[in-house]
Amino acid sequence: MAVLDSVLKAYQSPTRMVHAIGALSALGQESAALNIKRPLVVTDQGIVKAGLLDEALKPLRAAGLEPVVYDQVRANPGIQLVDAGAAYYKKERCDGLIAIGGGSSIDSAKGIGVVAVHGGSIVQYEWGKDPIHSRIPPLVAVPTTAGTGSEVTLWAVITDPDRKIKFNVGGTPNIASWVALIDPQLSVNLPAGVTAGTGMDALTHAIECYTMAYHQPFTDAVAIHAMEYCGRWLRVAYAQGHNLEARYHMSMAAMLAGLSYGTDSAGAAHAMSQSAGGVHDAPHGALTGRLLAPVMEYNYAGEPERFARIAQALGLDTSNKTVWKAAEVATEDLDIPSLNELGFAEDEIPMLAKKAEEDSQTIGNPRDVDAHNYEKIYARAFEAGRHRKVTRQLAHAGS
User: Fold this and answer.
1) In 10 A of CB 91, how many CB atoms?
2) What Rg value do the Cα atoms of the chain yield, rounded?
3) What is the mean pLDDT of residues 97-123?
4) What percent of the chain has pLDDT over 70?
């Protein structure tokens, strides 16, 4: 323990966190306070079609701002999308950023900010390459899902289609949002499947950051609280989409789980889902949720006391069930798709395992893991998917 205690650890968050039911009405006020006059509003077509962009533009214009819209974000945003956004930011002479949407929109806005300040292409700022030496322009992040917590993390995840991987940008307060404006009202119309996937992503962040090699008292505290909220409210939000109490607590869970990252990485579940997401364009939350249980099963030996505490935080009775079996049941309760349904095939396991081993988040895992071990974990994940298929067939036959 003395050796562990001698390792220098730090925690820093420059993000102001503002939250309430109806907090979107304060968007103009919060943006003006940052001296933003002409923000680039980064979002996607789903937000546009849902009418949420129009709702966001109202308080901005009421505060005297002149917003410019960049609505080209797609799931798993790529290098070209971010670089084009940065070029548009400069062309329109913007002086700040507003991100409205899920993690893809917020990560895109962060990446646009990095390139706008530092030049070049976002691929140059992959973690471990060119440093992000200056803070991005003022950014107000408005999440419309409760999953990634990107509104408070120090990271952005970008897809490189040529290498078929996702890579991390950040690990520094310089990439963080200046303000996270969290309005749970924005998530009430999410489809149940999106609620499930994003909620499992938040839960996975909390579990992995609680057990990661770099955990510290602050990250432990917010991770545990995020798990408690997920354990109590995720199923409610899934079953009752318009339950504002559930939506509020899941929004807080995502924020707390995002804070539990700090400047560090997560672990094997995110090494797997992030690298696999570069191979097939699968929803990150659903993919992460499907991988969580087999990773927990593998990692238990590395941190048994912490996994026992996870079970307690989730309110699980594990007298007749292991904590990872309980997590596996949760994926069935929430109807998380199998890996096959997400577009993956078992003959891809060796390739997927190799990519996971090469992902930087592997080093944070609480148990040593290599490509051989990743192959075993993937095999378990596919096995769980087959069990899901049989369970659904039996349920259908009995209905």
Assistant:
1) 9
2) 20
3) 98
4) 93
**Tokens 């609620």 sit at which residue?**
195
| Minimum mean pLDDT range among 5-9, 260-264, 296-300, 334-338 | 5-9
* Residue 333 pLDDT class (50, 70, 90 cuts): confident
Length of the chain: 399
CATH topology of domain 192-398: Dehydroquinate synthase-like, alpha domain (1.20.1090)
Domain ranges of the chain: 9-187, 192-398
Indicate if the pLDDT at residue 396 is higher than 50. no
Residue 318 · residue 397 · CB < 8 Å? no
Mean pLDDT of 149-173: 95
Predicted local distance difference test score (pLDDT) of residue 5: 63
Is the overall model pTM greater than 0.90, yes or no? yes
Return the CATH class of domain 9-187. alpha beta
